[in-house]
Amino acid sequence: MMKTDVKQKILREGARLVHRKGFHATGIAEVVKAAGVPKGSFYFYFDSKEAFGLELIDTYARVIGESARIYLLDESRGTVERIRGFFGSFVDFLQGNDFRDGCPIGNLCQEMADTSEPFRKKLETVMGTLQLNLADVVSEGQKRGEISTDLDSEATADFLLSGWQGTLLQMKVKKSRESYGAFEALMFDRVLKPV
Amino acid sequence: MMKTDVKQKILREGARLVHRKGFHATGIAEVVKAAGVPKGSFYFYFDSKEAFGLELIDTYARVIGESARIYLLDESRGTVERIRGFFGSFVDFLQGNDFRDGCPIGNLCQEMADTSEPFRKKLETVMGTLQLNLADVVSEGQKRGEISTDLDSEATADFLLSGWQGTLLQMKVKKSRESYGAFEALMFDRVLKPV
After folding, report:
1. Does the beta carbon of A120 lie under 8 angstroms from any beta carbon of chain B?
2. How far apart are CA B71 and CA B49, in angstroms?
3. Which one, A180, B65, B66, B98, has the greatest CB density within 10 A?
């Protein structure tokens, strides 16, 4: 294997395990075993478990960024439909997985924000980028007359993210998409809708 | 000490530690040390760490239920002010604590819902009770003309909980009450407001 392949394998299996089990509960031995690489190779690529965790955040952020690109920047659709597609596609994915695991970034925020300042800062940046992406779509929707113009786009994006993260939490505990139904009805048909 | 005192001490220190560190990261040895009781006494009161965790959920639910009673059932205030007081008082508490820890029930939902079915069921019940309490206030607000009558009270209560839990997550990662500002502006002044 090429060196970069080894690193990518470690990150890929690490991302899967940490998404499922959390960062603390995932052991390095488990990650290298799943990746099928020698244990020593882990410390060749990562100075510490924390350094590995910080690269995992990049891995998750890339996946979310790609989804944001596909849905939020799809100019063939209206702005509300783009936001709906972005969240809805993830709900469909979760439902196929019995609503397990949730959002890998949200999970790490919950688990790590109070424990590690480097994690917290990096997670804050990822959430901030997503908030900016959503705020841009809200602004565009306001120009197009699809979203109420009396909303502050940044506060609305912030509220979209809060509603979304809380909905993920509730779907996880209820094992049902019911809370997403409430989110859709109230967020799209009431909050965003032009008055 | 009376036997019940020992058990209450274990639960009180356990609740504090698990709120701060999470369930998996909190060891039984640490709990009994903090409680100042012999290690053996833990297994006199709890069959397992899981049984202890399930009683912790009751402990947290009692605190939340007490706060719900104080704020949500305060008939001297309008219904929206009651909901605002319920959430706002907790935000004030969190702010005094650098937005650490968040909601003990929300944290356990995140950490345990996929890992332990007894935890998941019990957490779902606690969230369901809070949702019902909120739905009752929404219904009452609708009768009093304080909350828009074209809202479904249960879906609105569900959405209140999602928005709230996500706001807690964002405050934890941003170390700021900014997201609660967005929550207040959009939830109270837009979603609940009579049209």
Report:
1. yes
2. 33
3. A180
**Helices H, strands E: what count in chain A?**
9, 0
Chain B interface mutation, best of A115, A122, A162, highest count of B Cβ atoms under 10 Å: A162
- Tally the C-alpha atoms within 13 A of residue A8's C-alpha that lie toward its C-beta: 5
- ipTM of the predicted structure? 0.95
* Minimal C-alpha gap between A59 and chain B (Å): 19
Q: With contacts defined as CB-CB under 8 Å, which chain A residues touch B159?
A: 163, 179, 182-183, 185-187
* Predicted confidence (pLDDT) per residue in B37-75, tens digit: 998 999 999 999 999 999 999 999 999 999 999 999 999
Q: Which two tokens stand for residue A119?
A: 């994690």
What structural domains does chain A harbor? 1-46 (1.10.10.60), 49-192 (1.10.357.10)
Contact flag B162-A179 (C-beta cutoff 8 Å): yes
* Closest-CA residue of chain B to A151: B186
Residue A20 burial (CB < 10 Å; 0-12/13-18/19+)?
middle
User: Which amino acid, B158?
Assistant: D
Name every chain A residue with its beta carbon within 8 A of the beta carbon of B25: 24
pLDDT tens-digit readout, A42-54: 999 999 999 999 9
Helices (H), chain B: 3-21, 28-35, 39-45, 49-72, 79-95, 104-112, 117-143, 153-174, 178-183
Please give the residue of chain A at the shortest CA–CA distance from B116. Answer: A173
Rounded (10°) CA dihedral A142, A147, A151, A155:
-100
How confident is the model over B131-165, as pLDDT tens digits?
999 999 999 999 999 999 999 999 999 999 999 99
